[in-house]
């Protein structure tokens, strides 16, 4: 398989993941850290209830997982470019630039930023680049079990204290002062985000290792020859995905702490199974000419992933928050699907037009300028 074709597949998957990221992020942007329910959705009914569960089951967690996997895969291809010392130095500069961008994005735009997490996890990836395949697999298992265990132990269903905190959060997001919201975010959300890194970094690092491992095995270099392997992984991951979704639905109707913790475990398993299923399904579709043509518009979207991600959060926080159009809490769950799809169509068009003039997105250009070697 040519390098161009391999990169096309990666960009297609990345573009597809952007839609899922936007869909989930819309539900998070239209909520606070303290108003997102762990077991949905007691206050909903009808299409809102169905839509909320559809997003939870089919999208939540699956698409940042795909992005994380592709980050690890990209790191492997980054290492193949030139001598190790030169590349590692450049990659570290890339991580520092991404960390700075992520911190700015977290503080001034949205508490749900993932860029700073990728940057911090990336430094661990560099340190473990020489691990053997067996060591990488062992580390993935240990980190997955660790992060899931911490989530289960630390889980809670809320209480009177959380009700007060959630009320304060709603007030902050619905008011029309950006500076007051910024003050609230720095005082209340940034500390929570820092604490959550204990769980989030290991989860992301599992996926970085997985992408790096797959890159090192050369599976993306020979996708046509790997068809049987891809089918096998698609079937296995699809089965895990389906079973986990059934268990989540079953456990959500049991009102006890054990069921609640079980729900968390199966949600993590559904994230793992779902993300692999989506990726392998797209790879199989891309091997069919007619289906490949249908997927190709996603390629330009994926080429400008950073620009499009930032565009999504900046635009929708401005629509939702009180300092903007003030739609916070007013968007029904069933509207998230058409809103996400429509916005992605616009981004595909804009990305395609931009790439007819330039070879990379504006945010990608600025990012590369930040870490470019000027010596």
- The number of domains is 1
Class based on secondary structure composition and strand pairing: mainly alpha
The largest sheet is: none
**Unreliable residue stretches:** 157-161
Our measurement of the CA-to-CA distance between the termini, rounded to an integer number of angstroms, reads 35 Å
The ordered string of helix (H) and strand (E) elements is: HHHHHHHHHHHHHHH
Helix content: over 70%
Mean pLDDT value: 89
Strand content range: under 5%
Number of strands: 0
* Spatial extent as radius of gyration: 21 Å
Report the total helices.
15
- Net shape: globular
What does this protein look like?
- The protein has 15 helices and no strands.
- The chain has 375 residues and is mainly α.
- It has one domain.
- Helix 1 crosses helix 12 and helix 4 crosses helix 15.
- It starts with a helix and ends with a helix.
In short:
This protein has 375 residues and is mainly alpha-helical. 78% of the residues lie in helices and 0% in strands. The protein is globular.
